[in-house]
Fold these 4 entries.
Entry 1:
Amino acid sequence: MPVLTDDAAGRVDTRPAPGENPPQRRAWWTSRRRDQLAGLLFVTPQLVGTALFVLLPLGLVVWYSLHEWNVLADTFDFVGTDNYRKLVDDPNLPSVLRSTAYFSVGLVVLNLGLALLLAVLLNQKLRGTVVFRTLFFSPVVVSLVAWTIVWGFLLQDNGGVNGVAGMVGADGPNWLRGEWTAMLSVIVVQVVKNVGLNMVLFLAALQGVPAELYEAARVEGASRWTQFRRITVPLISPTILLTSIITVAGALQVFAQIAVLTQGGPGTSTTVLVYYLYQQAFQFHQFGYGSTLSVLLFAIVLTLTVVQWRMRRRWVFHEQ
């Protein structure tokens, strides 16, 4: 116990008694604080990058959508919600949203369906599967613009696709000049370009399914389709959720294929929202209205992503 004595000035002596250890002062720089600082230093570059290149541009887009910005006249006038009223009254917007929906639905269905089919086929223990995996994945690493330009030549009226069709006696259409054929062509080009990525994700998920489950199902007399429906799909459902979110968000942001292959035509049959945004902002120099379309695109992507994420408890196996 410390010795309590009063001196002449009335101060108390709290020094420890002889033979008693002084109380240990708790260190401020603990291992926990060191770990917290190390973690903060590791995530700081990502936080700074997100703030500078995601949050700040997003805020500026919303700010620009409230203005009329004429670069040629060097004017930047506040117009409030006029651009949003213009968005509601835009006669071209319904056809643009319809084309966006057709393109997104077609791309997502074909991409996910084909990727899952290829993954199931390539998951078999057969000779040559490594070669086919490489062939299907190789378009993913090819330059997007170069890929699209090559397909532009192949899909011309006298291009390679119609040339192959002519060898078997078929007369192919002008793929990029018909309304439905142009949309189909853009979807197929995008699917062939990126299906390998989802295929690899599905393949990794399939290889993580325990073989004992299939053996038990075969013992019980389950068919291959029943095994796929009752075992494979539930166990790879987290990967299906991931790929669907990525594919839907990517489908709504496709631009280069439209710009190179069809320029939104014929008419507005392939004018998706991203390309319409580009036209308004960079061709017609209506940057305020283009920013408003950007806000609309962000709202659509965010809504669809949240809906898919909220639905995960219904069809993702591990969330049930």
Entry 2:
Amino acid sequence: MSAVVIEKSTTLREGAFGNAKALSCRECGHHVELGPHYACPECFGPLEIAYDFGTVTREQIEAGPRNIWRYKALLPVPDDIETSPNTEPGFTRLLKADNLAAELGIANLWVKDDSTNPTNSFKDRVVACALSAARELGAKVFACPSTGNLANAVAAAGARAGIKTVVFIPRNLEQPKQVNSAVFTESLVAVNGNYDDVNKLASEIAGEEDGWAFVNVNVRPFYAEGSKTLGYEIAEQLGWRLPDQIVIPVASGSQLTKVHKAFQELIRLGLVEDRPYKVFGAQAEGCSPVSVAYKAGVDAIRPVKPDTIAKSLAIGNPADGIYVLDICRQTGGAVEDVTDDQVREGIVLLARTEGIFTETAGGTTIAVLRKLVETGQLDPDLETVAINTGHGLKTLDAISGSVGPAATIDPTYAAFAATGLGG
């Protein structure tokens, strides 16, 4: 049974979680009342949000704001969510990546660029949903364990909402991500250990401290739903249709599973045509427990100790790993991994073909996309979407040794001509 100590001074107001009706166990299907719970009391399986959507139309969605709240009818948030101070993330661009497509030999390629969110990563989406739940549950502290991007998003969202934030990170996290969190909150805590150590500490604190909402612990079911908005936006921006193939980075695995959930919800609601699509997962070789399991043809995820420059993907014991395996196998996709050098190459490739500077997670996705084409696992003739989850300014150290001046010259034309860079 999950330890929950968020205390509500009053009962939940009507419509606090919108069309959400219960928390449902992903393993046994047991239903639990909506609240700060994350483990099934019957089998200890993970909980997720179950809904009664009613009728939702394209016109209703399109009339909404140009952020994730246009999909509020499909999320566990109140109908008046726009009136609560939040960072209003989402509706980021879906870029037609013709230059990258030509480089990789793909006929039709799009990049969903989430680096333009308020704190420059997709985590603003999930945090916005978690913040709504924390507010409705009467939480006093908004907190998280994080590999970086989540800490940035939680600290900023808490500042915007006027709620105390405390964020926990591994001590060796990239410096730009540490600064990006510390500028929003005075309560940044660096922990000696990797992300899994930090996450364990957060779970212990959640069980001991009253009134703390840990976005990816005791309000995780609400938090995770924010990733669905990536799937909704992709479908809407494609003209209300699903892509043939999609490549998604895998850390905990939650993003991939929720994008798939979004596609399935759109199908059930009749908002898109029911057609096959393939889902591919991307990991870095230094932390690839899901890819290893996929290639071995097994269902169990064996935890690993992360050792990769892709720190935002460095979760050695991914909570949703087994569900990633199921989805990728069922849809005819795959889970693949690449080396750190290939991650760096992926960063540079995306930047020099499409003008998008991605962090190491995005470099992993682009490198895996290339590998999937080269190994014949991804059909280059089918429409494909790759997700860029964050901005490269957050992971400068990973790429700084690989790029730099082409030449250092004296301030004369003769010196420039000698470089061979002229027309």
Entry 3:
Amino acid sequence: MTTPPRPHPFWTIERRDAVAGYTFIAPQLIGTIVFVLIPLGLVFWYSLHEWNVLANTFTFKGAANYQHLLNDPALPQVLVASAIFSACLVVLNMTLAILLAVLLDQKLRGITVFRTLFFSPVVVSLVAWTIVWGFLLQNNGGINGFLQMFGITGPNWLRNSTTAMISVVVVQVFKNVGLNMILFLAALQGVPKELYEAARVDGASPFKQFRRITLPMISPTILLTSIITIVGSLQVFAQIAVLTQGGPGFSTTVLVYYLYQQAFQFHFFGYGSTLSILLFVIVAILTFAQWQLRKRIVFYEN
């Protein structure tokens, strides 16, 4: 008489490992669903309606908000201002961060103090930092007072379309350049010193060493910081709200501030949600494009 096969136990090692894995990722997964996916779906739903909080009405509009988006006469100016701000911020931030990281990577006495000084603006309150710069950039503020000591009459920095954009870019660069600097500094310290020694033996100049060794070896960090900086530049709000309120005209009205105006100042929540969808699409496209370029700009990927 043959013994019947024993049934497989339900609580197998594979299922136990699966439950443990899902348990570990559950907090992150729940947070993503509750705070990212559900709000994103609600924003899209609101973009198909017009929600008048004052009149307590919620009217279905279909694609009317998206039609308004295509016909909005102010939107091209807003997108141009956003592009100028993001391009200037990314170029200045990345360039300055790399240069500071290279300088602070030197084995000099007291270099830790300078690293702390350059990083300290990152931990300062954003609003407090912006308010201080607002006082400095006023027509009779500290910067123009300093220039007056040399007989130079400074402009009204925040009330001129050109200098207003320059001012908000510089304020943002000084605020966050320390974060990218630390990331680049960590990447530089991971570059094998033997590569530089071999390059010096072969007679390579410092610039060629930087171009042929340093940049390729830190290219993964460059990719990471470029994505973070570009996404952050498209989400800037507090600096614009405190310094210029989007003016003069639309010269510093970036997309996030225009979204805030439409939704929370003019109470067009449906159109504000539509602008949020536009911002999401722009960020997604730029992030995807950078990620696809990684095989060309990142050293160790082919």
Entry 4:
Amino acid sequence: MNAAFANQLARWGFAIIATILLLALLAPLIAPYDPDAIDVKAILLGPSATHWMGTDGLGRDVFSRMLFGSRISLLVGFVAVGIATAIGVILGAIAGFYRGWVDVVIMRLVDVMLSIPTFFLILAVIAFLTPSIWNIMIVIGLTSWMGVTRLVRAEFLSLREREYVLSAQTLGAKNRRLIFRHLLPNSLTPIIVSFVLGVASAVLVESGLSFLGLGVQPPQASWGNILTDGKEYIEFAWWLSLFPGLAILLTVLGYNLLGEGLRDALDPRTAKNTA
């Protein structure tokens, strides 16, 4: 893969994500119906000019619910990954900069967390909490920081031995200045890429939880609980599974393309190897 193709990946990913974000932001203006409005005369209607993506088992317009559901799914993705990234950056920076016993303690904590399957850990925590969008975001964030921690730690360990860092340290620069002025800014590329790729994973986790009935609760729409409604009518109401499934697929694909493209475009080592 050459640099031009990598940038092409980033452009395609950005176009997909920008379109989905725009639809989510404009949902109140675009949606032709109230997403929660029940119409007993329009139950399980197929896609048509009146209902572009059909209706569900309560007569609600699927297209309107898809638009408002995109807001929930993307919000969960951004906030959850924001929490995970913040925790990962802090712990990774501390472990990579101070090393020694601090590094050992943090990395053993990471190993313990990684030994537990993340999705089952989330299920176990959610089971003791009231299912809500805020609980889901917090739980996903608190169980997804390990990869970022290892990534930031590796970057700090590598950068800490660079000449400019050693020179600044020799000149008497304090630890805070070394971290925030010299080390962290030079670690932003992998952090940004990890954030973008992490949103795709968080969207999948939220969809899975909602599909199992442990995520966003009805009547609030999300792609996962629209899929849950569709499984009851899968034999004759295919649109209830097809459209939310495609939305999840496109969103995850868009973030993965954007993340891979950004990594190849921003990382000089990758660009050199693929030139």
